[in-house]
């Protein structure tokens, strides 16, 4: 008893072949889209790799690029098969390849599922990498003369301006680091000496932030220094002042940017899984409809198409039995050899 | 003596009609491109409209948008007409519309040229507008509590951050304006009062700049206060001063930005104008060829096509005469419908009426 059989006459077969051909080409376009999204994601990660301590994982974009290319290839082949399906001579050369092709499509769907899962799960790794990278970024902000770190200041300033954020968790992270290099500090000044002696590690700490933390939408000119000292500025209360500098932390800002990107890509990949399944079902119907034609010479005859030759349970038990015999054939051969060796 | 006379066989006429149909459809696409370019320019100008003192520059994108829409409509109609022109029977439908259509297309094509030339000529007006606009923006930078000016601070800050510029001509422009509002100045402090008294207008001037002038490429944290005093900061040498703030003025930066955009748009519009001119010439040839075929009576015969029937001077003269006679028609003396009681007037009027059409028909026959 075939699973979900459908009767086909010539018109229905032609319509199915045409519709399936268009669907396959739509899938090729979706494959190209996934490929370009993979490249875009890779570029975005590269752009801000300094904020991620240069050890961010490129697994997801590389996988997306691979999946995109595979999707294009697989679906283009499917489209070609559909295009040739109504001509029996051309279809005859594709017929033997259909079964391995369907298995390949199944494997490809599993790969797509894995990619979608990774898109959603790798966000945790991204969060941890960002936290580590930003912490180091703030620490090395002042080292504009150290090779390998000389652009950290510029990158961090541009990130804070672009993403409208300040510091790692919030702006107070800047109070815990020395972000002014010693070459710009007058060591003979008493104030500077006091400040350096005021903490264990001898760092020049102050309650100030860099200019890139300033909010252009603030009604008053930006206050960068002595942020926790109300008497240092006229008409200033640091507990109620919200518009002066950005209050959001850069880790949260960057993470929300990347996670929204990964979520949309993951949703697209899941939609592609559905599209591929529909393609596979259509191709199965088309190939079975063409195989079961009662009179191969007469194209007008009726035929039947199905998804599975037997019911779902029967197909599964057959598959399991086949896998078992695949394992057993090796054992039987060994036993046979032992017998022949004995005799 | 016709201008640009070319003889067409029937096959050539049909080929011309087909080619023109295709070219008209391509022109619809270029019209859409023109519309898109106008829209893009309008959006770019509106982004920084607050720092421009007069809105005259908006004429350019509006011109491009209207000509783009007109191009789409006219060329769509042209496509339909050219498709029908291959067959003499169908051409009869469009016969009366063809001449006005060609005249309309000629005017519209000259509008496209005007649009392209405007793109190149607007530079001086833009510079003046930016100079005044930026000067006012810097003056009103501190007025974040005045309605109508409360977003000037944010706009100017974002402009300086995005375009890497500071001030009107340079960063020193900020030394001449009070950019900190009085509500954030402690009037009881002696330093503040001294500074306010130090100049005639009582403004709080200082050699400091807003944070948006700070350069992100500087190796040291930004120095905003006492910018010109090198002894106020440790190790503040010439090189530090050069890298500390953005050196360019915002007027020059914005001028370069918009001039670049408008030059590219102007070039594209000029190319589109040349293409439209080509299409117009083709349509004119097709129109005259088809009219001559109808005049000759034999649809299979060869016919001539031209750009102007007579030489340029004669055409100008005859058009001028037509306009003069158009004016004369409205004079009451020649109107035959008015019942003039005198017999002599009745006799005179009909003969005068008859003469004019005879001469015009005669002149047309003579020229063939």
From TrEMBL, chain A:
Transmembrane recorded as keyword: yes
Membrane topology: Multi-pass membrane protein
SUPFAM superfamilies linked: Tetraspanin
One GO term (biological process): visual perception
Subcellular location: Membrane
Keyword GTP-binding on entry: no
One CC-aspect GO term: plasma membrane
Major location (coarse): membrane
Keywords: Cell adhesion, Disulfide bond, Glycoprotein, Membrane, Transmembrane, Transmembrane helix
Stretches that traverse the bilayer: 20-41, 62-81, 101-130, 255-275
Recorded family membership: Belongs to the PRPH2/ROM1 family.
Name of the protein: Peripherin-2
Organism listed in the record: Lates calcarifer
Lineage of the species this protein comes from: Eukaryota, Metazoa, Chordata, Craniata, Vertebrata
TrEMBL record, chain B:
GO biological process, one term: visual perception
Primary localisation category: membrane
Spans through the membrane: 20-45, 57-78, 98-120, 265-286
InterPro entries xrefs: Peripherin/rom-1, Peripherin_LEL, Tetraspanin/Peripherin, Tetraspanin_EC2_sf
Membrane topology (UniProt): Multi-pass membrane protein
Keywords carried by this UniProt record: Membrane, Transmembrane, Transmembrane helix
UniProt cross-references to CDD domains, sorted A to Z: peripherin_like_LEL
Annotated localization: Membrane
GO cellular component: plasma membrane
Statement: the UniProt record of this protein carries the keyword Cytoplasm: no
Database matches in PANTHER family: PERIPHERIN 2 LIKE-RELATED, TETRASPANIN
UniProt family annotation: Belongs to the PRPH2/ROM1 family.
Protein name: Peripherin 2-like b
Organism: Lates calcarifer
């Amino acid at each position: 008893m075939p699973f979900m059989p459908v009767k086909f006459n010539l018109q229905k077969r032609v319509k199915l072949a045409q519709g399936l051909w268009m669907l396959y080409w739509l899938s090729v376009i979706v494959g190209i889209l996934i490929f370009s999204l993979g490249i875009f994601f890779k570029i975005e990660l590269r752009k801000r790799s300094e904020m991620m301590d240069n050890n961010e994982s490129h697994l997801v974009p590389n996988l997306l690029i691979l999946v995109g290319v595979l999707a294009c290839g697989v679906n283009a082949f499917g489209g070609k098969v559909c295009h040739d399906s109504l001509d029996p001579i051309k279809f005859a050369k594709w017929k033997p390849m259909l079964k391995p092709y369907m298995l390949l499509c199944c494997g490809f769907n599993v790969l797509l599922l894995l990619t979608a899962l990774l898109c959603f799960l790798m966000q945790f790794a991204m969060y941890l990498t960002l936290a580590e990278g930003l912490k180091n970024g703030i620490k090395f902000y002042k080292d504009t003369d150290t090779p390998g770190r000389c652009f950290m200041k510029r990158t961090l300033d541009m990130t804070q301006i672009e993403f409208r954020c300040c510091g790692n968790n919030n702006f107070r992270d800047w109070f815990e680091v020395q972000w002014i290099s010693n070459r710009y500090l007058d060591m003979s000044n008493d104030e500077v000496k006091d400040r350096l002696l005021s903490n264990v590690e001898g760092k020049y700490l102050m309650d100030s932030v860099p200019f890139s933390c300033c909010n252009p939408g603030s009604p008053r000119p930006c206050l960068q220094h002595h942020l926790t000292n109300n008497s240092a500025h006229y008409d200033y209360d640091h507990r109620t002042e919200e518009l002066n500098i950005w209050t959001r932390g850069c880790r949260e800002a960057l993470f929300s940017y990347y996670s929204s990107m990964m979520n949309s890509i993951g949703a697209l990949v899941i939609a592609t899984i559905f599209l591929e399944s529909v393609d596979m079902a259509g191709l199965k119907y088309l190939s079975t409809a063409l195989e079961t034609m009662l009179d191969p010479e007469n194209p007008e005859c009726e035929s039947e198409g199905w998804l599975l030759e037997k019911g779902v349970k029967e197909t599964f038990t057959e598959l399991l039995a086949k896998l078992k015999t695949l394992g057993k054939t090796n054992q039987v051969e060994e036993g046979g050899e032992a017998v022949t060796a004995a005799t | 003596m016709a201008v640009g006379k070319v003889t067409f066989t029937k096959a050539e006429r049909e080929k011309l009609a087909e080619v023109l149909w295709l070219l008209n459809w391509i022109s619809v696409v270029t019209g859409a491109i023109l519309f898109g370019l106008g829209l893009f320019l309008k959006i770019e100008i509106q982004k920084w409209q607050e720092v421009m003192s007069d809105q005259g520059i908006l004429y350019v994108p509006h011109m491009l948008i209207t000509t783009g829409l007109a191009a789409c409509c006219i060329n769509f109609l042209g496509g339909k007409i050219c498709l029908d022109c291959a067959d003499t029977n169908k051409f009869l439908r469009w016969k009366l519309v063809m001449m006005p259509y060609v005249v309309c297309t000629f005017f519209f094509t000259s509008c496209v040229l005007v649009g392209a030339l405007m793109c190149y000529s607007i530079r001086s007006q833009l510079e003046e507008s930016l100079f005044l606009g930026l000067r006012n923006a810097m003056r009103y930078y501190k007025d974040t509590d005045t309605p109508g000016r409360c977003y000037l601070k944010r706009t100017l800050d974002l402009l300086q951050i995005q375009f890497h510029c500071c001030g009107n001509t340079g960063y020193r422009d900020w030394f001449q304006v009070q950019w900190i509002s009085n509500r954030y100045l402690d009037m009881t402090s002696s330093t503040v009062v001294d500074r306010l008294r130090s100049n005639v207008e009582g403004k709080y001037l200082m050699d400091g700049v807003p944070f948006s002038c700070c350069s992100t490429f500087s190796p040291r944290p930004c120095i905003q206060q006492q910018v010109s005093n090198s002894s106020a900061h440790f190790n503040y040498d010439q090189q530090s001063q050069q890298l500390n703030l953005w050196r360019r003025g915002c007027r020059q930066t914005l001028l370069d930005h918009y001039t670049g955009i408008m030059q590219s748009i102007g070039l594209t519009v000029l190319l589109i104008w040349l293409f439209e001119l080509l299409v117009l010439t083709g349509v004119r040839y097709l129109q005259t060829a088809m009219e001559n075929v109808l005049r000759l009576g034999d649809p299979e015969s060869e016919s001539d096509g031209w750009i102007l029937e007579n030489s340029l001077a004669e055409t100008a003269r005859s058009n001028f005469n037509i306009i003069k006679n158009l004016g004369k028609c409205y004079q009451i003396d020649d109107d035959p419908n008015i019942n003039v009681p005198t017999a002599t007037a009745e006799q005179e009027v009909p003969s005068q009426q008859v003469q004019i059409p005879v001469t015009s028909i005669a002149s047309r026959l003579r020229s063939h």
